[in-house]
Structure formats: structure tokens, C-alpha cells
Amino acid sequence: MGLSDRKKKILQIVVDDYIQTAVPVSSKQITSKYLTDISSATVRSELSALEELGYLSQPHTSAGRVPSSKAYKLYVTELMQKDKKLTQSELDYIKSVFLQKADNIETVLKSATKVISELTSYTTLAVSSHEASDRLVNVKLFRVKQDSALLIILTDTKIFKDNFIELPADMTDDQLEETNNILAKFCQGKTIEEFCDTELELEDSFLGFKHIFLNVINALKEYIEQSECYTEGEDKILSHPEYADVVKIKEFLSVVTDKDKVFDLMSGEDKELKINVKVGSEGYDNIPDGCSLVSATYFAGGTKLGTYGVIGPERMDYQKVVAVIEHVGQIIESILKNR
Amino acid sequence: MGLSDRKKKILQIVVDDYIQTAVPVSSKQITSKYLTDISSATVRSELSALEELGYLSQPHTSAGRVPSSKAYKLYVTELMQKDKKLTQSELDYIKSVFLQKADNIETVLKSATKVISELTSYTTLAVSSHEASDRLVNVKLFRVKQDSALLIILTDTKIFKDNFIELPADMTDDQLEETNNILAKFCQGKTIEEFCDTELELEDSFLGFKHIFLNVINALKEYIEQSECYTEGEDKILSHPEYADVVKIKEFLSVVTDKDKVFDLMSGEDKELKINVKVGSEGYDNIPDGCSLVSATYFAGGTKLGTYGVIGPERMDYQKVVAVIEHVGQIIESILKNR
DNA sequence: GGTTAGCACTCAAAAGGTTAAAGTGCTAAC
DNA sequence: GTTAGCACTTTAACCTTTTGAGTGCTAACC
């Protein structure tokens, strides 16, 4: 069911114009601004056909046409210009932010969220995932009080997490060091999953400390389940005319300000570095009604770092959003490679 | 300029009623619901006098009275019933949350923010402060790669922070251990401020590592400046009728979703455990127009843990908010004391 | 057969007008 | 000092009219 070239062109014009203006697009608009060589009556019959096919709709009989979800989907995959370039000042801005702040993965995630939100003018979400397949670099206990230690988990992407573990009150520093040596040997080159599955064999003299190792494993399991969640620009949605209604704002904010819901939203199946676009809420029950989500998962050296997403009205500047997310992804990857 | 008892009573009724209903209070309302023994005409003249004194105003001539900021201020300090008790289920809820999650200070802060927001139905903000007067328990470097180490800072309130420090490539493990011993000795019982001011005397053989110590001090100074910021229930504001207007919502959200602004808001001068109420935006230029902020700073063993605040419309249920904040503060303190 | 001018038709948004209800302030009497 | 009574004010709700934008259809045109 291929659309004729002219239909595609007209559909693209309608979507482009509507994304920019938020005003239903009329046949006259199209002929005066874009297609000056054909008459509005011709366009009108094409629009009517596109409506028949489900790509457009009218808010009311005497209004212009508005794209449907189906139109946005086609727009994203086929119609829109995909190699949109960011301006030099935007590129410079991105670079400057990441040069400054790249100390640890959390900072990078936070900065990325902020940068994306700033440049796109949409709410930006991110979750940092801790995967069972993350490779461990070291696991170490660090005594705090006589009977408790801080657990440090280091993975190859330098993400790490902290947790308190109880120690037997009579454990000596030497014994703790020995424990750390055993932990270091155990985790050598293993993924978290592999570490947790390892049957640990302790010397008899160490059996009394077995529960420490079990606690470490528990902490690792907990670590996998946890994920940090970052949000920026929750207020950005208000600049868009479709959110003039308090009820809609409420619906949007109740999702975006709830970390659990954000996590649900972002924990898609996307295993590729490719950009994922979900238009409209149909089929995706987590996305607020009438919203779209553009997301990407960033990797460094095979390890999943986290997922980013821009969420906004269906009438979203997909070109810009895709360009920004793509570029930030490249920058992050190059930063993490060089360290 | 003492108000007569009757004026106070009437003012209290107006504020109470308006907080509950958000509808301008009329003289008839007052006489039929609260003061059945006097006539509405009498109340009317009192209301008129209260308006003259700046405690009340009218949205328009044929409307009831609405409290002014001045009225809310008086209400908070004098008029409102202060020993409002939480219900048993509310108390149980608070207890259950904190029993479950008290692993580290960040978790406690997050839970507290959530609990307060949930129980009050207002947006809740919190910042965890790192004070120069925090007492150090230990400072330790933990090698990650040959040339970089993770810095762990432990203070007596168990808050801690992490940061990477560069090591000379040829530094041995023994030298690192020695460095840690020196750090441990140096920080013994000192506050962060004292630690940073200490003139460190190194043995000749260790002078080559002096920059490590300087970096640690820098990290500590950075640590003091940093502060985490938690927000919950940004969407709660939308339930209140005064926020039916998108412009007002925008103003509110632009403050509440901006971590820098939240920090400004919360970094008041409050050194006491007392509850601080800022009514209306006049004089406090960070608070969004027409908002009030009820905040408290929590301490544990003399160390400032962080500041909490509930922000919402001037027409806020101060009784409830104060009661919740007070109670959560007590719970946190008792938790942190028993560990 | 596609394209176009012309025109009747539809609908929403804006503007204007009317009414009803709520609440006050004032006055005169108690 | 308190109260009943009444005139006055103002908003909110409702209805009506007008205006303008945009379409769909038809008949003519190439």
C-alpha cells in the first residue's frame, strides 16, 4: 500500500508544519507556503484521501488537518529528513559540558540528561542500569566500625555502589584483609552473575565468616535490581500548547515525577544502540496519553550504561530530538573509551 | 496592636475555612457554621475592620474575604491549633517506612521526602548538607587502577562520598597503605574544616606523594560544597485550585524542578531544629509567588543532616504539615541515635 | 482522468447581552 | 454594641449573534 510520491510529500509538509506551529494545516497553507504550483483544490482532494487512509484527521469540519499517530510513525521512519545537523554552538555546548564533568558515570548521566533536555526543550528521562552481565573489577569491604563494613563494588564501567555489611564483632583486621583477598580472587574477570553463581570453597578456618560472603552476594543481587533514575525539564512540557489543560499536565507529571513509572517507561527491550521511537500511547500503556518517547540505550565496551529518553507531545520535533540523542550518545561513548 | 479576642477568633475561622475550602469566606458562612450566637452583620463589621488592618482582602466587592499573607503569618504563630495529632495509621505508616529503609543516610532522606509528600499532599524538597563542621571518622584511598584510586570519606553521621584521585604510576601498594595510615591518623577526631587546615608534615621519603594529600583536601573541600537534592510530589500542586492556571504552574515547576533553585530555597539560615515557616513570597525572592515554605533542619548528634521543606500554596494546611515534619524529624533522630 | 474555480455549507471562537446569585455596606431601629 | 432590612455591585452562567476559516462538491477545463 505505497503512497504516491505527491501524497508522501504532502503528508510530510503537514507533519512538518504542524510540528512547528501546532495549528491544523489547511490546503491553502500548503499551496501558499510549500506547493505553489498546484491548486488548493487538488491538495484538498489529496488530504481527503490521506484522511481516508488514516494518516490525517480534522478536529472539526471547518478546520485544517492534523497528523494521526500513524502519520507520525511514517514520518519518523520514512518522511523526515534524518541527517539534521546541530548548529556549531550546540555542538560546542555539548562538548564543553562533557569535558568538564566526566568524573564518574553518575555525573555523566546527569549531565547528559540536562544537556538533552536543554537542547531539545523536552522532558528528558534516564535510568542507569546495573546489569547482571556487568564485569566486576573488584569487590572490597572497608571497615567502618568494629562490627560493620562498607561494601564497594567496582565494575568495568566504573559504576559502583555502596552498602553496609555486618561483621562478626570479633573479626580481626587480618581476617578482614584475608576476606578481601578472597573476594578479589573470586571476582577476577567475572560478571556479577557469574560471581553470584560461584560455589565458594572456604578453608575450614574461614567457615565462620561464610555469612559475610553470602551477604556480599545478596548485596550484589540487590545492586542489580537497583537503578538510578534521572529527570530533567519536567516543566518543559508546559510550553507546548497541547498542554494548556491542567488535567493533561497532571497526567503527564504523575508519570514523569514517579521514579517507578519512569523506570517502567525506560526499561524497554532495546538491546541495540539504535534509537527507538514510540509514537502515541497506543500499545504502550506506560506512556501518557498523546505522548511520544524517543529513547536510546548507550553502551560502553559491551556493557549497558543506561537508557535515555525524551518524552513529549506526539507533535514532537523528532528531527531535532533524534539528532541530539544521537550526538550525545557518540560523545559519551568517546569519553568513556578514552579513560 | 493587639487584636480583640473576637477578632482573633474570627480571623482563625476565616483562615481555617479558607484553607479547607479555597472559597472566599462570607459573613454568613461564619455565623451559620461557627459563630451561631452572633449575627452576620456583626461579623461583617469585624471583617471590615480586619480588612482595614490588612489581614483580609476581597477578590471583588461581592465576594467573601480571603486571608492575606499577614493573616497566615499570625495564624501560624498564634492562631492555629499547634498540637495536632497524626492519626494512628499515619503514625504506623511513617514507622513502617523507616524500619524498612535505614541503611544509609541517602535512603533515609529519600524515604523521608516521600513520606512527607505522601502524608501532606504537597511537594516536598530536601537537601542533604555536607558541613565543614562534620566530624571525620575515616578517609581512605582504595586503588582501582594502577594510577587511580577511589576516595572514601566517612563522617560520624555515616554520610559518605566518593571521588577519584590520581596516583603516581609507580606507587606501590605498601606506599598506598602507608598513605592511608597517615590519612587515618590525620583525620582522627577532626572536623573536615580542621582537617583541611592541618599543616601536614611528611617524612622526606613521602614528599613525592604530597600532591595526593592536597588532592584529598581538595576533594574534601569539594565535598562540602556539594549537596544532594531530593524532590517528591512535584505534581501534587496541581490538585489545588489556585493552580488551575498554566502560567502559575509553570512558575512553580520551574523552581521546584531546578536543583539549583531548590538548593537556594533550602539553604536558609536555620541552625535550630525548630520549624521555619515562610509565608508568601514577599521578602523571600526564591519562593514562587503566592507560595509558602515550611522547613526544618534535622540534626543527629550535633551534625546537620539536611533540610526538609514542604512547599505549596499560601493556603496550606499548616497544622498538618507542621505535625508531619515534626514527627518525621523525631523518627529520623531516634533511628540515627540507635545505630 | 486529473486539475481547477466557484460556491454553499459547517463549525468554532469571539463578542455581546441578559439573568441569577452571592455578598457586601449602609442605615435605622433595638 | 448589635441586628434586620435593603440597595448596590460584581461575577458566573447562559444564550444569541456574528465572523471567519476551511471544507466538500459540482461543473467546467485541459
Structure description:
The structure is a homodimer of 339-residue chains. Chain A has 339 residues and is an alpha+beta fold. The first copy, chain A, folds into 3 domains: 5-79, Arc Repressor Mutant, subunit A; 88-129 and 227-337, Beta-Lactamase, CATH 3.30.450; 136-225, Enolase-like, domain 1. Helix content of chain A is 45%, strand content 19%. The first copy, chain A, contains 12 helices and 10 strands. A 5-stranded antiparallel sheet of chain A has the order 7-3-10-9-8, sandwiched between helices. In chain A, helix 5 (88-100) runs antiparallel to helix 6 (105-120). Chain A is elongated. The model of chain A has no long low-confidence stretch (mean pLDDT 88). The structure holds a DNA duplex (30 and 30 nucleotides).
Give, in order, the helices and strands of chain A.
HHHEEHHHEEEEHHHEHHEEEH
**Beta strands of chain A, count:** 10
What about the largest sheet of chain A?
A: 5 strands, antiparallel
Largest interface chains and counts: A-B, 30 and 30 residues
CATH class of the largest domain in chain A: Alpha Beta
Structural class, from helix and strand content of chain A? alpha+beta
